[in-house]
Structures are given as structure tokens and as C-alpha cells.
Amino acid sequence: MAPLFVRVPPARYGGTERVIYELTEELVRRGHDVTLFADATSETSGRLRAVAPVPLWELESHHRIPYQIAQVDEVVSSAQNFDVIHWHIDYMHWLLAGRVRTPSLTTLHGRLDSESVRRLFIRYPGQPVVSISDAQRRPLAGVPANWIATIHHGLGLAQTYELGAGDGGYVAFVGRSSPEKGIATAIRVAIRAGVPIKIAARVGESHKAYHEKEVVPLLGHPLVEWLGEVTESQKARLLAGAMAFLMPIDWDEPFGLSFIEALAAGTPVITRPKGALPGLMRHGEHGFFAESEDELVESCLRVQLIDRAACREWAISRFSTDRMVDAYESAYRRVLDASAE
Fold first, then answer.
1. pTM of the complete model
2. What does each C-alpha distance from 165 to 206, 226, 237, 262, 284 come to in angstroms?
């Protein structure tokens, strides 16, 4: 069950949807009978059950919730046809958990550090859940939760990214234009370091005011190049040519696909040691952790010390699709075994 806001696989922005596509395709390749509930523009080697005509980001906001409710109802109504149900749509389906006998699990892709999420876990302590990093779980310490596993995201990194020389002479930022991603800080740091920065970013509805106030005034500097949203192939070329990937996050990132993509291209990462990041890379080996803008500037000037080939080997060996799907097959067996007890 994919979120309906972006097609699977995404044409441009959409990290969760890329993970779902990789997972679905590999499960089919391994001989599993897979049905993907997504919007009608999505593609899959399994069966596609279209529950919205287009990605919901293309619709007015008041049209979105009915499609989301219809998706949950359609899955619940046909649950007896499946051995396992794998949800990627946050928590809405927990309301109908009592109607479903089919074993299921929910992968949570977002942050879990709000009081509302804490209350939800207390209300539904038996829901089998998968975290995408151990760091993602920390805000719920002491809260009863049925954690099935922590499963890091995996992508076809070796096939999508080549080892880049980093000879473009610029740093790259790839992600959302939002305060938690540190985009304004990244621009200021690059300017202070005297290094060009190329920005491939999406401006979401909820962050338009922030973008206009904090980011747009910085875009006129001659060292700054705004690319907007890019395709997968464009992103691969951008990262391969970058001397570093600069994203000084200002929140506890649950995972961070763009970081492993950069490393797969051999591009060292410069960021803050928050959330899952200390588990995705090693300081001094795959880039640098830094807190202040002064430290971030210094890191930009030292990045040539990092072995790009070691960055790529690290990412490909730890964050592959095969490794992710192996872990999910084990998680599926776990919920199946629990339901049989």
C-alpha cells in the first residue's frame, strides 16, 4: 500500500515511492505474487490496483482524503485474498485493524517525535511496525510498541550511480526546500567557503512561505545555481560531479535516501550528526559531521581528503535492494508465524 501523493516509481521527487518500487520489483523477481495499491499512473511488475486517477499532489487538497479513505477500504475489503499486507501510508488503517484477519505490518517513513504520535502508539500498542532506523524509534522510548524490525532502506545503487570524479568543482544539495533540511544554511556555507552550490530541490506546499522568505533572497548570488526538481538520471550526474554533498540537517532525520545516493556516487557527505545519520556514514571516512556554520565551512575545504571509492563501496554494500528485501522477507515470516500461534 503506497502513499497516493506520488506515482510509483516517482518521475522526480519521491523517496518513499522509490523504496516501494524497489521492494515490489524485487519481491516479484523472487517469485512472490505482489499487488500494489497506488495511483493509476504507477508502474509495477506485479498487479496494479489503481485507487486514485492521478497522484494526489496534482489534486486540490479537499479531494485527497476521500481517495485515501477509499484506498484503505479497498485493501481491507479484499484482505482475505492476501497472505500479508504491507502498509506504507502512516496510521489511517489502524482504525480498521479489527476488521482485518490477514497478517500485516506498517513501515513508518516519517518522524515519530510528536505527542500525537506517542498517544497513537499508546492507543494501538499491538500494531506490528517496522522502523527505518534505530534513531527513528528514540522519541517513543518507554512507549509500548510492537516493533518487528529495523530495516534500512535499500536501492539499486550500483546500477543507478557510477563512481564520480567530483571534478565539477561544486557542492550539491538534493532534497526539499525546508528548514529541517538546512537548505539556507547550505547556501550560506557554500558562499562563505567560496564554493559553487547546485541545488536540486522541491518546494512543497507547506514550505512555500519559508522558501520565499529564507531561500529565494540567497539565490541571486553568483555561486548559487537553482535547478529545481530533477530526474533520477540528472541527479546521478549532479552527484557524480559534486565535490561534496552538503545538507546540514536541522532535525532528527529518520533515514535520508539522498545521503546514501551521494555516497554511492563516491561523493562525500557534509552534514550534522542528527537522527539516523551517524548510522549511515562514518565521520572522517565518508565525509564530515559538523554543527556550526564555521565547522561546516571548514569541512567544505577539507573534503578532498575523503576517499571517494570507499564512500561508494560503503553505500553499495550496506544499502542494497537485496539486503532490504531479505530483511522484509524475514519480517513477513515473523508476522505470519505470530498469527499462526
1. 0.93
2. 36, 22, 11, 12, 19
